[in-house]
């Protein structure tokens, strides 16, 4: 076991609510330690946030100790939570009783939880060594009256050594840890992707060996962990680990269809490798946008065809480096024949199925589906303003910036520059049109105006007239003029 006192610079990072929690438990004679992410933050020179703590106090005793903070007991595992404010930001602190766990028949939750008596018992049941380092107050309340408060870091599992080496290592036998909770396999990858760490050899091997256990985990938990990986500092590295360990095949096997699928034109990478590079280059930190970026070409393998460059004959499943067209006899490089017509339509259907399967919410599903469906839009300088507005309508005002992020990632993931004069011009023109009428409700007339002008009651004619007016306004925004539109209502009403 390794112990050391915290340095003054580290102590200065401890927020007041955390100090107070230490004091309140010590005053009642209980042990209490900071654990998990809060400890990692201190080691990295950051302020602990949303702290997790562990104590020998039972949940009932914790509720009494924390009674001035309106605590609540929120699960069956001894966790008492309460809200604190740190630098004006509300955070949640969670305090869990020392415990030992036995038998995980559903590979998710322990069948039996018993409160522990010692810190050693609690540390032994934790997932990874870097999460099992704890920090507590070394001296007692009485000693503090004579000396300054002293904090002690305690490491029973060589977690600090692993932290310094940049390793994610399971506590004890990794196969046992993953049998206890199969989601820990994804958590290992998430910590590696978040911290830029490698996964220790035996832990990584155990993930591959136990990957099928992920099928025991609910779609919601898998989805949430996957989004955390996508939102990490190194999302593409995390996804590569999901693929290489076999975990991706357990919850999103469609991704693997792109493995080894060649592309033509300017593409030098296979479909899967390009998707990974696009994810790595995505300028957005939003995990939903990163997911859309990653899966934007997921429909390519199912749409791949090979087109003879001389006669246009289409073929499937060509694998040789050169192909002689069976129709016209022309011999050509097979890579130059590759097409993916309609892959964005196929891809949109696929991501809808995937996101529904993983129980994303409706808004997230629609955004991802929209970004994949319309990511192939082509821009030419001679496009009219009306064409730009139609593009914005298809994508949605609320999605247009995210689409730009996806296109930047797509370009860089193909080896191109971040932007080009054409792409910059498109962005400029989109910006110019964003505040022009995009919806029927943006017009200066409405259904009441139609009813009054035509002297009709509510009915289908109202929508028909408004749509015809809007089609005109979309083509020429100068026509969004009340006098002109009222005149057009009467003209349309006569037809």
TrEMBL record:
<dbReference type="GO" id="GO:0000049">
    <property type="term" value="F:tRNA binding"/>
</dbReference>
<keyword id="KW-0548">Nucleotidyltransferase</keyword>
<keyword id="KW-0694">RNA-binding</keyword>
<dbReference type="InterPro" id="IPR032828">
    <property type="entry name" value="PolyA_RNA-bd"/>
</dbReference>
<feature type="domain" description="tRNA nucleotidyltransferase/poly(A) polymerase RNA and SrmB- binding">
    <location>
        <begin position="196"/>
        <end position="255"/>
    </location>
</feature>
<feature type="domain" description="Poly A polymerase head">
    <location>
        <begin position="32"/>
        <end position="169"/>
    </location>
</feature>
<keyword id="KW-0479">Metal-binding</keyword>
<dbReference type="GO" id="GO:0016779">
    <property type="term" value="F:nucleotidyltransferase activity"/>
</dbReference>
<dbReference type="InterPro" id="IPR006675">
    <property type="entry name" value="HDIG_dom"/>
</dbReference>
<dbReference type="InterPro" id="IPR043519">
    <property type="entry name" value="NT_sf"/>
</dbReference>
<dbReference type="Pfam" id="PF13735">
    <property type="entry name" value="tRNA_NucTran2_2"/>
</dbReference>
<dbReference type="InterPro" id="IPR050264">
    <property type="entry name" value="Bact_CCA-adding_enz_type3_sf"/>
</dbReference>
<dbReference type="GO" id="GO:0008033">
    <property type="term" value="P:tRNA processing"/>
</dbReference>
<dbReference type="Pfam" id="PF01743">
    <property type="entry name" value="PolyA_pol"/>
</dbReference>
<dbReference type="InterPro" id="IPR032810">
    <property type="entry name" value="CCA-adding_enz_C"/>
</dbReference>
<feature type="domain" description="CCA-adding enzyme C-terminal">
    <location>
        <begin position="351"/>
        <end position="486"/>
    </location>
</feature>
<keyword id="KW-0460">Magnesium</keyword>
<dbReference type="Pfam" id="PF12627">
    <property type="entry name" value="PolyA_pol_RNAbd"/>
</dbReference>
<keyword id="KW-0808">Transferase</keyword>
<dbReference type="GO" id="GO:0000166">
    <property type="term" value="F:nucleotide binding"/>
</dbReference>
<dbReference type="InterPro" id="IPR002646">
    <property type="entry name" value="PolA_pol_head_dom"/>
</dbReference>
<keyword id="KW-0819">tRNA processing</keyword>
<comment type="similarity">
    <text>Belongs to the tRNA nucleotidyltransferase/poly(A) polymerase family.</text>
</comment>
<protein>
    <recommendedName>
        <fullName>HD domain-containing protein</fullName>
    </recommendedName>
</protein>
<dbReference type="GO" id="GO:0046872">
    <property type="term" value="F:metal ion binding"/>
</dbReference>
<keyword id="KW-0547">Nucleotide-binding</keyword>
């Amino acid at each position: 076991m390794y112990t050391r006192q915290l340095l003054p610079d580290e102590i200065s990072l401890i927020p007041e609510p955390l100090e107070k929690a230490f004091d309140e438990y010590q005053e009642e004679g209980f042990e209490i330690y900071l654990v998990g992410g809060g400890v990692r933050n201190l080691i990295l020179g950051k302020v602990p946030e949303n702290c997790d703590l562990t104590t020998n106090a039972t949940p009932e005793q914790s509720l009494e100790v924390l009674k001035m903070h309106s605590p609540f007991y929120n699960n069956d595992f001894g966790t008492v939570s309460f809200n604190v404010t740190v630098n004006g930001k509300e955070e949640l602190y969670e305090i869990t009783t020392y415990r030992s766990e036995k038998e995980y028949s559903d590979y998710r939750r322990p069948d039996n939880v018993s409160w522990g008596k010692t810190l050693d018992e609690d540390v032994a049941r934790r997932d990874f060594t870097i999460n099992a380092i704890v920090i507590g107050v070394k001296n007692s309340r009485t000693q503090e009256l004579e000396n300054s408060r002293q904090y002690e870091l305690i490491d029973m599992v060589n977690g600090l050594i692993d932290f310094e080496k940049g390793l994610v290592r399971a506590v004890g036998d990794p196969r046992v840890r993953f049998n206890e909770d199969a989601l820990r396999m994804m958590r290992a990858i998430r910590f590696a992707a978040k911290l830029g760490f490698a996964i220790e050899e035996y832990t990584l091997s155990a993930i591959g060996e136990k990957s099928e256990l992920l099928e025991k985990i609910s779609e919601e938990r898998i989805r949430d962990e996957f989004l955390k990986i996508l939102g990490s500092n190194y999302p593409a590295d995390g996804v590569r680990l999901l693929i290489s360990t076999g975990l991706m095949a357990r919850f999103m096997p469609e991704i693997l269809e792109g493995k080894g699928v060649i592309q033509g034109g300017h593409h030098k990478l296979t479909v899967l490798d390009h998707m990974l590079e696009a994810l790595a280059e995505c300028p957005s930190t939003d995990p939903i946008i990163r997911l859309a970026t990653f899966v934007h070409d997921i429909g390519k393998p199912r749409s791949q065809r090979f087109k003879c460059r001389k006669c246009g004959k289409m073929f499937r499943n060509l694998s040789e480096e050169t192909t002689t067209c069976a129709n016209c006899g022309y011999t050509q490089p097979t890579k130059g024949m590759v097409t993916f017509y309609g892959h964005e339509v196929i891809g949109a259907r696929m991501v809808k199925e995937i996101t529904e399967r993983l129980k994303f919410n409706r808004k997230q599903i629609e955004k991802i589906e929209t970004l994949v469906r319309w990511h192939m839009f082509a821009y030419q300088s001679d496009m009219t303003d009306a064409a730009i507005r139609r593009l914005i309508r298809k994508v949605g005002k609320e999605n247009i910036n995210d689409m730009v992020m996806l296109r930047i990632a797509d370009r860089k993931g193909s080896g191109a520059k971040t932007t080009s004069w054409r792409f910059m011009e498109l962005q400029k023109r989109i910006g110019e049109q964003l505040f022009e009428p995009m919806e029927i409700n943006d017009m200066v007339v409405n259904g009441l105006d139609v009813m009054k002008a035509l002297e009709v009651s509510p009915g289908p004619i109202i929508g028909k007239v408004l749509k015809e007016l809007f089609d005109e306004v979309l083509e020429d925004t100068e026509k969004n003029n009340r006098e002109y539109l009222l005149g057009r209502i009467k003209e349309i009403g006569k037809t």
